[in-house]
Design brief:
Distance between the termini of chain A: 60 Å
Number of strands of chain A: 12
Number of helices of chain B: 23
Radius of gyration of chain B: 26 Å
Shape of chain B: globular
CATH superfamily of chain A: NagB/RpiA/CoA transferase-like
Structural class of chain B: alpha/beta
Oligomer: heterodimer
Structural class of chain A: alpha/beta
Number of domains of chain A: 1
CATH architecture of chain A: 3-Layer(aba) Sandwich
Radius of gyration of chain A: 21 Å
Number of strands of chain B: 10
Helix content of chain A: 25-40%
Distance between the termini of chain B: 45 Å
Largest sheet of chain B: 6 strands, parallel
CATH topology of chain A: Rossmann fold
Number of helices of chain A: 7
Largest sheet of chain A: 6 strands, parallel
Amino acid sequence: MSSRESILGRIRTALAGDSPLDRPPAPEVWARQNPTTDEMSERFVREIEAVAGEVHRCRSMDEARKELLELLSQLDQATVGAVDRPLTRELTSQLAPDRIDWGAPDRPAQEMAQWSASVVAADCLLADTGTCMVACATAYERLMCYLPPVSIVVATAERLFEHLPAAWDQIAPRAADPAVRGEFVFITGPSRTADIEKILILGVHGPKRLIVLLIG
Amino acid sequence: MSDEHIDLEGAPFLKDKTAGLYEPAGSKTLEQSAQRSTKQNRETAASIPQWEAWREAASRIKAYALSNLDKLLVEFERNITARGATVLYADNAQEANQHVLDIARRHHVKTVVKSKSMVSEELELNHKLDAAGVRAVETDLGEYLVQLAGQRPTHIVTPALHLSAEDVGNLFSEKLGEPFTTEHQKLTDIARRHLREDFLRADMGMSGVNFAMADTGTICIVENEGNAGLSTSTPPLHVALMGIEKVIPSIEHLPIFLNLLARSGTGQKLTTYTHLIHGATPGKELYVIILDNGRTNVLRDPASRMSLACIRCGTCLNACPVYRRVGGWAYGWVYPGPIGSVITPHLVGIDKAGTLPFASSLCGYCGEVCPVKIDLPHQLVHLRHRAVNEPSPMNSLRQRVTWQLWSWAMSGPKRYRAAMAMVRLGVRTAKWLPWHFWELGAWTRGRELPQVPGRPPFRDWWRKNGAQLKPQAPHTETSPGDEQS
């Protein structure tokens, strides 16, 4: 008998004679307040700063482009890795082509580890926790969230949700689609640890800085 | 199960490795860190009006999941397989290790980067990989420190809770040849530099699983450091280890657990990284190993079953006065604290771990703080009951004779008086002995012998003076609510 059958068999024996329980509904977790986009933007900024993230509110794509150039001029001049989305294409349209890399399947991780920053687009922003949800379809897109020391996330304010449960109506069906692969990652601040004496230190393995460009 | 690394015979709390009892410095770091966590947890719970409703809802979802475990596992397997993953089952640690070794061999793996997984600790996997010539590197900072020091984790969320910055500085200078420092930032940078090389070199990444969603075939991993992100995305191969109890019915149920786990475990609103991994990432391979290793024993005991609802937040450890004093190693196996004391006897056998449920003052705080409402105090009592009635160290001939003698001596006034007289005599005599025999020796290594109760005993005094005392009106100065314990 395979382990699969023996484990399932033991479970069935253990549960035999149990009275069946009703399947619990998805709990509400947080009530919906339906705040305005402005209120959510303000909350998002406050929350992400509380977890040591940085955020720049930009009125337009033009302003975001300027902000990006300014940010990158402060970093070392190594390559910036970008994840290919309409929003990141627009944002980086003024960067010198040799400064930016859109990833290729054969790009070795050793090389990407030398890059100065990454630019990714967030699918959802959660206001009450200061969280960016980034949908990654490939290993390269996943790596861009963790490998470079500076992580730049761009998003439009219309992707703001008041909290995780409010965004879940959009996220859950996408996660359930069998054709979807890769990863949805919820990022709440730069990489951190408190493993030595419970003292908080930023940038242990992942990005040391998380910078959100919030447009609109 | 590899017996060579389990040391649960007898009473682990009496053994030398119970460092906290004899080394005040060792337990100070632990005590302070645990206190910080408990305070954080209390504040978190107090700041959320619906905290109790969350706990209740989470507990009901887990109860449902456990009572439908066979169906949910099959559903999860079907859905994640459809998304390109390979699912393997393992009855026990040996089989799980064999699965990992086979995968490593097939892919010519030389280096494995591992993010934190309690199941992996349970399997003693690193030893097995080492023996097969595969280098296994723990990448969670706390696990990395513990691995470098050749120790075991002392806590399930913060494995190096017992190490001070000075200890870490010494460790890095000794093992990595780095200049000694006690600055937390510098220590963290050193670890980052060394582990980066391992991430980039590794041919296989391993992780645990926090939640496995049956209806979507998604696995959820939460973390703060980014090491789970790197471990699961840098190498071309990802092997995820999970206990059978990690499956939840639906992705709809996930948000409440994410809320509870982050807030209970570390006092965060959400962990820094929450990964939802949808099967195998294109171009990569994903294996999910589903482990029993004694968990069906827990399922079979209705009074213990809900301990499988544990989401490994570590709150009950921090809350436990016994854990705070003795630390994680004293529990003798992988899962310490109150939750360890209720699951370990099932996972390794009551005959081996029957003493663990007695490592508690039954103060009840663990049950109060558990985010999924596991009734830990009553489970401890239930397992005590089992331990004295089934083959276990608590049911040895010596234990039985001792307690039957005690019971006999306590059940008659004359016998009681005679026993007490002997105790008084015995304690007074033992004080002058240069050595302390039997269990007394273990007991007095860390403690002073108690003072002999005053003479004459209260009983004698009462017989002489009790009749002269008149009953007095009870005190009325304080109102009943003023009493504090």
